[in-house]
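Lecture notes, unit on binding sites. The following record was shown on slide 14. It pairs a sequence with manganese (II) ion.
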Amino acid sequence: MTKEIDQNIKEKIESSERILIASHVRPDADAAGSLLGLGLALKQAGKQVQMVLEDGADKFQYLPEYDLIRQSAQAKVDMVVVVDCSDPTRVGHVLDDYGRPDLVVDHHKTNLDFGTYNVVEPEQAATAAILFDHLPDWGLSYSPEVANCLLSGIVGDTIGFRTSNVNSDLLRKAASLMDLGADLAEIYREELVMKPFTAVRYWGSGLSRLEHEDGLVWTSLTLADREKIEYAGNDDADLVNVLSSVKEAEIALIFVEQPQNEVKVSWRANPGLDVSGIAFEFGGGGHAAAAGADISGTLSEVKKRVIIETKKLLEHQKATKG
Ligand code: 5GP
Ligand code: MN
């Protein structure tokens, strides 16, 4: 039986002609795949859909119809949806003129429930997996394009089914998405294997100053690195995933310098540890195994503060685990 909230969402979709969907700044594959997957399903149902990522979708050119994604919203809409985002500030300025979202679909346990309807399922490995479950309840259907977008989200957030929250239920969802037309090998290749030359050189800058102490492995990427190498993004080009493959790293950290005295910090933790709380305390959020925050201060100040606190956290979590 369809739950009451799903029925309410279905009715809201049915009565809405123009729908705006947004996700977070520095989008990852789950943000872009969930946004496009839901957006294409709504378009198929005859809706006028605006899909907006403030930082654009250049990294996701392998996703079907990625060029429909805009960097700002225009005109009035009847319904606002936010996907894969635990708090409204992380959407950037996209929602400034639109008020409270009608629907939030997310899997972060730090979610602030900032929508009228909140479909927040922290046990799910990706927002795209939540959408896979609910699309039929909301009167929407899967095309091969929708399936490709959703499987991209799942592959992205599980780093290719490698995270400890991957279970048989998720693999069955992935198998169903393949039956619906998603191309797993192609998604895997585009999303996880192939990297632009500039991104790998950018990794080189970070790897050249890699540090290791007391179970923590970390490095930083500076604005000067990006300028020198001509790396176009404002992110870490997924270098944090390389850092978390270092055997000595119980927690891996990366500090990415941003303009205006800000630093983007990413944490990655081994199974059994939880870095979502520390990210939340620094004004960000995320999951037990992967979390992030934008922190004000110079690169060296932020590094110092975060490393001290993360070391304390690791010591405490190891002590209480016995
Ligand atoms: P990453 O470190 O790769 O940016 O993100 C890891 C996880 O933490 C993702 O699920 C991401 O959505 C979340 N996250 C990263 N940065 C922030 C932030 O500034 N605020 C919040 N609320 N979540 C974040
Ligand atoms: Mn996600």
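Take-home: The chain has two domains: 3-193, 197-321.
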